[in-house]
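Input structure tokens:
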């Protein structure tokens, strides 16, 4: 749970570099410890990806993966594992840094500080991690297996492209998704944790439930942006269309149906419950111990 600026300033000075370092360390540690669940649920993520790209039902996506075999099942797992650890380090640490910077300003209300700091952290996160997501989506698309059989071949191919069509393809929807998602996460998880704690749960359980519920709501709300990103990033080469043109094509390919657009959404809930619930619980526990 994000600690209020007033309480943090009572505990430590607003510019204490040790405290700032601890936030980055705790964020990285909590995300690193959640890499095991990431490995476990990666087949789930890949199933969702197939649904997003090919607009197939769950049993059809699972059938495709089973037919391809266990070796290809984990093709593309390296980028999300690396990104997961670095993501937690940057997201939690930068949000805490921005929170302390904003706490000295009178422009932003106290209740909105965590959300505003989360928004800024989400934008920086998009700048840093869009290339990771791009590589991951190219690797997970089975249509690229022949042309781009390895991680090295993908990197070489993307490096030869312009930034906007190569590593930073779909940057705008990613920035919107990450900024809004981070803002909602940091703005909501504290109040939600407080409500859950009133039900008599332990601090660790309250943090876990808070992280789960918050990330679940965010994932479902922003799921269409994730589908758009996956479709924009899965291919390399060919005609490069803008965000609105890609959205129009996606919407028409789903027959203008929200039900078809949200295919795989239930699996996103499962993934969020496991990863962000654990990450939030570990991070909050570390923060309370160091506080």
């Amino acid at each position: 749970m994000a600690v209020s600026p007033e309480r943090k300033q009572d505990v430590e000075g607003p510019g204490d570099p040790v405290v700032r370092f601890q936030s980055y360390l705790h964020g990285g540690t909590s995300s690193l410890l959640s890499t095991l669940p990431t490995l476990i649920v990666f087949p789930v993520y890949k199933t969702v990806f197939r649904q997003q790209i090919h607009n197939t039902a769950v049993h059809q996506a699972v059938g495709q993966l089973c037919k391809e075999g266990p070796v290809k099942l984990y093709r593309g797992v390296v980028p999300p594992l690396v990104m997961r650890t670095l993501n937690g380090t940057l997201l939690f640490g930068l949000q805490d840094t921005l929170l302390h910077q904003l706490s000295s300003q009178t422009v932003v209300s106290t209740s909105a500080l965590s959300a505003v700091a989360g928004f800024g952290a989400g934008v920086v996160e998009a700048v840093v991690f869009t290339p990771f997501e791009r590589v991951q989506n190219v690797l997970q698309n089975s249509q690229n297996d022949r042309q781009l059989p390895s991680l090295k071949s993908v990197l070489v191919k993307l490096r030869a492209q312009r930034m906007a069509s190569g590593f930073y393809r779909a940057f705008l929807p990613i920035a919107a998704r990450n900024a809004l998602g981070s803002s909602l996460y940091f703005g909501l998880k504290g109040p939600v944790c407080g409500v859950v704690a009133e039900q008599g749960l332990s601090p660790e359980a309250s943090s876990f439930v808070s992280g789960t519920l918050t990330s679940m709501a965010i994932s479902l709300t922003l799921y269409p942006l994730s589908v758009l990103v996956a479709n924009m990033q899965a291919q390399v080469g060919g005609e490069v269309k803008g965000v609105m043109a890609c959205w129009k094509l996606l919407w028409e390919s789903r027959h203008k149906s929200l039900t078809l657009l949200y295919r795989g959404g239930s699996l996103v809930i499962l993934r969020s419950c496991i990863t962000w619930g654990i990450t939030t619980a570990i991070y909050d526990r570390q923060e309370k111990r160091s506080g």
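Residues 1-14 have pLDDT under 50 and may be disordered. The chain is about 75% helix and 0% strand.
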